[in-house]
Amino acid sequence: MTEFDTVIHGGRIATASDVFDADIGIIDGRIAAISEKIAGGTRRIDAGGKLVVPGGIEAHAHIAQESSSGLMSADDYYSGSVSAAFGGNSSFIPFAAQHRGQSIADVISTYDGRAAPQSVLDYSYHLIISDPSAAVLEELPGVFARGITSFKVFMTYDLMNIGDGGMLDILTVAKTHGALTMVHAENNDMVKWMNKRLAASGLTAPKYHAISRPELAEEEAINRAVSLAKLVDAALFIVHVSTSGGAAIVQREKLAGTKLFAETCPQYLALTREDLDRPGMEGAKFICSPPVRDAATQAALWRHVQSGTFESVSSDHAPYRFDASGKFANGTDAPYPKIANGMPGIAMRLPYLFSEGVAKGRITLQQFVALSSTNAARTFGVAKKGTIAPGYDADIAIWDPEARHTATLADQHDNMDYTPFEGMEIEGWPVMTMSRGDVIVENGALKAERGRGRFIARNPVDLTGKPGYRAKELDPAQNFGVEIAP
Fold first, then answer.
1. Is the dihedral of CA 167, 169, 171, 177 positive or negative?
2. What is the CATH number of the domain that holds 331?
3. For a tag on the chain, would you pick the N or C end, based on fewer CB atoms within 10 A?
């Protein structure tokens, strides 16, 4: 008889395709067996009455990362990974940000030094590129070879925006090496134009952030980003889609076969611009970009979540404390453009999605698994994670679907002094998180040591089923036989 290190028994297993009752046998951190009944096990975990799902893969988080202005996020790789684990996540992919003048080698070395000694979860990086110089472009093949197969560019923020030409260069290099380019899509000049006019009228309170970044700014930029990617037939991932119009563009282009992926975030489903109009400077807690919108947009985004427009619902965890170290680094009465941009949410991503999605009948349990884990694994090349199957890592979360919980700051286990989800009533809660067979969180207690997480080398993006787009002008058969070199 096979002797298992751990047996999870009596639970209801859910994957992105199926829900069934079975036991799981784990050996050396991997799922070794799934069967109706499994005996033995050095440790037996009773999951009776519980759901057993793949651990979440958080694919959008800012951990131990400086902003372009030099402001450090509140969570390091210890507190950030712990918070993620309490929220049912078993691995994550934060960003490693290159700022102008930095070499890619130095950036990766810096983040290795921040992550390896600290993280309790397995981790990888998306590389942010803000300075696509010739020297930087020459460094990128080495990054891909190491297994960092995605990176992010910006169409907004003066110190991050690389322009359309820079995007085309990055997209071309990415295509050559099978990498996936992520993009923050907002029209920079539209935003600056709005900021200038609001400031001239003295409209600088936090609530005006909601109108300073128009829906059209996102929609135009998404359309432009997609057009740039189509020109060179490269894969593109639109991050934090916040508008109905933006989601509709993604839906349309996916139907056309474009090599396109996208996500939205819980804040765009849970919060509205009214939250920015809280008394005093409380609205500063809810400043993020793109901004939260309105109830009609929430309803539209939920329909896109239901219909498969988005690969994932990611947190965009960007933790800045409600004090001089974070939100008010430029003073407690700073105008909204000078208030640190972002909000925390890595621990609440999955409880919120389960409660508002599964428990309220908006999405199936299988869709929850896909949106929380499986799709991220497939999209970002995370092999052997994201599902429950023999040979896969035993990255598992056990959920109590009947638990009732009121969200509080204490639940987050991060380094923040507020949560934007404070007071929300949540149905369903993760009671255990496992990473490679190790119990990380159990019944509200941390069980893992800092630094146990391993770097995940990821595979190239899988574009199966996405035929892409061939611009006539780049097709030798239609442009006088001329081959345009990438």
1. negative
2. 3.20.20.140
3. N
Q: What is the pTM of this model?
A: 0.98
- The verdict on residue 398 lying in a domain is no
Q: Which helix (H) or strand (E) holds 353?
A: helix 349-353
Count other Cβ atoms within 10 Å, centred on residue 376.
27
Q: How far is CA 450 from CA 75, 76, 116, 325, 475, in A?
A: 14, 11, 9, 24, 52
Alpha carbon 268 to chain centroid, angstroms: 13
Range of the domain at 345: 55-380
Which pLDDT tens digit goes with each residue over 124-158? 999 999 999 999 999 999 999 999 999 999 999 99
pLDDT category of residue 2 using cuts at 50, 70 and 90: confident
d(CA 68, CA 192): 17
Q: How many domains does the chain have?
A: 1
260 φ, ψ to 5°?
Answer: -130, 140
Q: What is the pLDDT of residue 486?
A: 66
Residue 479 is predicted with a pLDDT of: 82
Query: Does a structural domain hold residue 35?
Result: no
